[in-house]
Amino acid sequence: MPAVRETAEQVLELERYKHGFITEVDQEFAPKGLTEATIRFISAKKDEPDWMLEWRLDAFRRWQALEEPRWARLEYPPIDYQDAYYYAAPKAKDGPASLDEVDPELLATYAKLGIPLKEQEVLAGVAGAPRYAVDAVFDSVSVVTTFKKELAAAGVIFCPISEAIREHPELVRKYLGSVVPVSDNYFACLNSAVFSDGSFVYVPPGVRCPMELSTYFRINAAESGQFERTLIIADKGAYVSYLEGCTAPMRDENQLHAAVVELVILEDAEIKYSTVQNWYPGDAEGRGGIYNFVTKRADCREDRAKVSWTQVETGSAITWKYPSCILRGNESAGEFYSIAITNNRQQADTGTKMIHLGANTRSRIISKGISAGRSTNTYRGLVSAHPKAKGARNFTQCDSLLIGKQCGAHTTPYIEARNASAHFEHEATTTRLSEDQLFYAMQRGLSQEEAVQLLVNGFVKDVLQELPMEFAVEAQKLVAISLEGSVG
Amino acid sequence: MTALLSIRDLSARVEEKEILSGLSLDVPAGEVHAIMGPNGAGKSTLSYVLTGRPGYEVTSGTASLAGEDLLALEPNERAARGVFLSFQYPLEIPGVPALTFLRTALNAQRKARGEAEIAAPDFLRLVRAKAAALKIDFDMLKRALNVGFSGGEKKRMEILQMSVLEPKLAILDETDSGLDIDAMRIVAEGVNALRAPDRALLVITHYQRLLDYVQPDRVHVLAGGRIVASGGPELAHQLEAEGYDRYGSLAA
Question: What interface predicted TM-score (ipTM) does this complex get?
Answer without folding.
Answer: 0.96
